[in-house]
Amino acid sequence: MEEKKEIIHTILEAAQKHGLSKEDIIVDGLVATVGANKKAAIETLETVSYCKNELGLATACGLSNISFGLPERMFVNSAFMAMAIQAGLTMAIANPVQELLMHAVYAADLLMNKPEGDIRYIERVSEKKVTVVTGDVSAEALSAAGKKADDGKKDGSIKEGENRDPLFLAVVKGRKEKVIELVGQKLAEGKEAQSIIDESLIPAISHVGVLFEKQVYYLPQLISSAEAMESGIEILEPVLAEGRTGKSLGTVVIATVEHDIHDIGKNLVALMLKNYGYHVIDLGKDVPAEEIIETAKREDADLIGLSALMTTTMMEMKKVVELRNKEKVRAKIMIGGAVITQSFADEIGAEGYSKDAKEAVEVAGKLLERKDC
Ligand code: B12
To answer: From CA 207, how far away is CA 110, in angstroms rounded?
Structure first.
């Protein structure tokens, strides 16, 4: 190893004298064969790691020499490839049609948290294309999409839909940068911020939910899509805020209940209420009942807004209602979330329910007996 280091330094100095920079240099890690030299892999990995971590140089390796003379060489090559990726290898000379080797590459990228490593791994191993439906998604369209996804699973290939809104597609595919670009583009074309949310972003994330339910999508894809959607909303939020008047129609404490981390819908409701003139105190997600009630009491809130997206967390709402009653807090309670219904609201004693953010403003107005809502 010492000798290798000396050689690297000699060449590096000479190259730099000739005007080359570090970015112009690639060190070949020299792969010997492990059948003849038991330390062959370790030595190469040390070289790769030294170049990457100490010198900041790119490396290359002719991979398959490692297994020369051994049986079932692809197992050795794949393991070596994964180890080399961990050591920081920049490029490999390898056979890209070897399935096992390439799967190992994608799996290693996933484990090393490379950009979009999770999504690329899932796409590679499932070899599925995403089903998309049109931008204005109805309940029927969603269930049809679910069926399509199911059919696609059977033959392993899902055909892409025809009528595509690029923004919808970008959220479904979890492409954050693309979402930012397309939202900016739509705004520049004069599209209203609220329409962008209603017509592209919400249908897209709902569609992702269907794909997840059908096990066409896995958790990393769900997370990517949620993040992509959030980055779109971040751009739209200040635009929506422009119309605010500054007057206050009342104080609303809003939160996603304890053990539930879904907050996209709750954030939209908070945004709408703010835009209509409510003073909104947003406690975030996974918020215990005690904190919600304490805040409502301290702030003398008029209304408490609760969000829950899971059957396992909706009963937390009941806890909040009971605590509000016990503590004699005057605020009324309005609830919502994908799993919530009017009859559930009635059952737990919540005064209001709404199916979406737009309706939430109307319900808030009614509960606070405002004539202007
Ligand atoms: C995005 C998403 C995620 C994201 C959340 C990111 C975030 N920052 O919110 C991530 C990836 C983190 C996630 C994680 C999980 N998720 Co998830 N997720 C979803 C998904 C696809 C979309 C939810 C969403 O944002 N919809 C868009 C918004 C705009 O709609 P909304 O939330 O319904 O809100 C609207 C209305 O409901 C209403 N509303 C909402 N809140 C409120 C509040 C008030 C006061 C009012 C008046 C109205 C109101 O107005 C909103 C705006 O119009 C849903 C599927 C679905 N169809 O809902 C699954 C879903 C909710 N998730 C699910 C699951 C199982 C999980 C996980 C447990 C997965 C796992 N195994 O780890 C974890 C949860 C961990 C936890 N402890 O909470 C299941 C729940 C199943 C169930 N019935 O219980 C669903 C239904 C997916 C599925 N089909 O299986 N998820």
So the answer is: 25
